[in-house]
Amino acid sequence: MTAIRQEDLIASVADALQFISYYHPVDFVQAMHKAYEREQNPAAKDAIAQILINSRMCATGHRPICQDTGIVTVFVKIGMSVRWDDATMSVDDMINEGVRRAYLQPDNILRASILADPAGKRQNTKDNTPAVIHYQFVPGNTVEVDIAAKGGGSENKSKMAMLNPSDSIVDWVLKTVPTMGAGWCPPGMLGIGIGGTAEKAAVLAKEVLMEDIDIYDLMARGPQNRIEELRLELFEKVNQLGIGAQGLGGLTTVLDVKIKDYPTHAASLPVCMIPNCAATRHTHFVLDGSGPALQTPPSIDAWPEISWNTDSSRRVNLDALTKADIADWKSGETLLLSGKMLTGRDAAHKKMVDMIAKGEELPVDLTNRFIYYVGPVDPVRDEVVGPAGPTTATRMDKFTRTMLEKTGLIGMIGKSERGPIAIEAIKDNQAVYLMAVGGAAYLVSKAITAAKVLAFPELGMEAIYEFEVKDMPVTVAVDMNGVSIHTTGPQIWEQKIRTEHLQVV
User: Fold this and answer.
1) Can you give the pLDDT at residue 310?
2) Contact by Cβ (8 Å): 194, 262
């Protein structure tokens, strides 16, 4: 019998969550570097460069890879010979205390994103608790823990289907991945759960994402069962879709495809697919009674040294822009922004459109301004602002027409694609939408030279800030003519891959 101390589990969870906030798994870094070296689309290659540079900066600066520090997901295997001699808490409470400590750690404060009463008041719990916890009781005298922090961008793109037994899983995946858009921040991993029941398939998909990236090892030795055959087939065929990094079009959409299955009912074929994004965060530890299991930092030599060339980018002064100035910006063009911009996400947009509907004056003047869809991490030490990468822009689509027609706004900055209603509103109002790279939050924050809250301070990270930036990198995603790089880029590169027989693996 092994006695596991309450404090050891708490401390190990807290240490693991801090660790994964700023360290990518090394296998992920290596796979991303391989994708960078292979990529032929300049826009996608630039996006991967930003992701890798950001990753190295976070590893050295011990600040979050992404501003979305996630909802904590934990898989626990408790040996049946384990004792909890000094426990005054349940195991759930121990894990949640570890989460609380990690997210409130003053040297690296993580963003509290968890809302209680999700169908009602949606009140922030302020410490990112509770975690989502899955248990297994197994033979043995140790406690094994897999822990991840899942951002909303990737988690919200999860897909599930109850297929007929005769249906093709490959066909379903290839049909479904393009519907996920780019909000899950590719390149990343796909976790696929097959079998069991609806909820079991979802748990399998989440659990399998905890495994290492090993697709090239599998290719080298060859498949030994149907699951491994599926992994290889999907890895190649999903990359042949040409979606590419950040949905810009390119050779790498996924770095690996992980699959786990479970026996199912004769009439059933449940399938769930969950992506891991370019800010993949997970780790593993084992408690054996000897004390807390603390993470070992990888060598910084595991990260490639990548130079990032911005010489060809257009420099833009946000403080002197008019609609006439943005008329010649073309979809796919890279810009470096300097000057002042406003921020605002879902809650701020809802408040503003409600005020407009009531005929009330807005607390900020949006005339000829750009608004950045971001919820930054709180600053520490000498920071102006914490990691401040973009959030998924489609959530703001329903507000876009009102904002463009009623406020004088001329541009927006966010992550991934815009939907048809937003693109139509952008075209009708001669505005533009710019894309910042998801998974490069710390890098983006270093371009912010000043930050202050202008309105709705009660919303916390969703308040309206004014950021002053210097050379903030963005891509023109939707130009004045309504041309979207997230539509044209994948189309071009899927065709190039097919007609020019480009190698995607």
Assistant:
1) 77
2) yes
- 330 and 249 fall within a common domain: no
pTM above 0.90, yes or no: yes
Identify the pLDDT of residue 150. 95
173: left (phi over 0), alpha (psi -120 to 50) or beta: alpha
Note whether residue 258 is domain-resident: yes
Domain presence at residue 238 = yes
Tokens of 159: 């897909």
Range(s) of the domain holding residue 258 = 151-287
59 belongs to a structural domain:
no
Element containing residue 280 per DSSP (H, E): none
The mean of the pLDDT values for the chain is 96
- Is the pLDDT at 207 greater than 90? The verdict is yes
pLDDT above 90 (res 79)? yes
For residue range 139-151, list pLDDT tens digits in order.
999 999 999 999 9
CB atoms within 10 A of CB 454: 15
pLDDT at residue 321 in the model: 95
Burial 271-309 (b: 16+ CB within 10 A, else e): bbbbbbbbbbbbbbbebbeeebbebeeeeeebbbeeeee
Please check whether residues 367 and 462 belong to one and the same domain: yes
Neighbours of 478 (CB within 10 A): 27
Question: Quick check: 412 pLDDT over 80?
Answer: yes
CATH number of the domain encompassing residue 426 = 3.20.130.10
C-alpha Rg value of the chain to the nearest Å: 23
Question: Which residues fall within 8 angstroms of residue 389, CB to CB, at 6 or more apart?
Answer: 66, 67, 68, 374, 415, 436, 437, 438, 439, 440, 441, 444, 445
Percent of the chain with pLDDT over 90: 97
Both tokens of 326, joined, read 């943005």
> For residue 164, is it within any domain?
yes
Burial of 499 (0-12, 13-18, 19+ CB in 10 A): exposed
CB 1 within 8 A of CB 81: yes
CA angle 156, 160, 166 (to 5 degrees): 160
Give the count of domains, the chain.
3
Concatenating the DSSP letter of every residue in 4-34 gives PPHHHHHHHHHHHHHHHHH---HHHHHHHHH
- Do residue 268 and residue 343 come from a single domain? no
The one-letter code for the residue type at 166 is S
Answer yes or no: are the C-beta atoms of 434 and 413 closer than 8 Å: yes
Domain boundary among 92, 117, 150: 150
- Beta carbons of 269 and 162 less than 8 angstroms apart: yes
Mean pLDDT on 291-299: 97
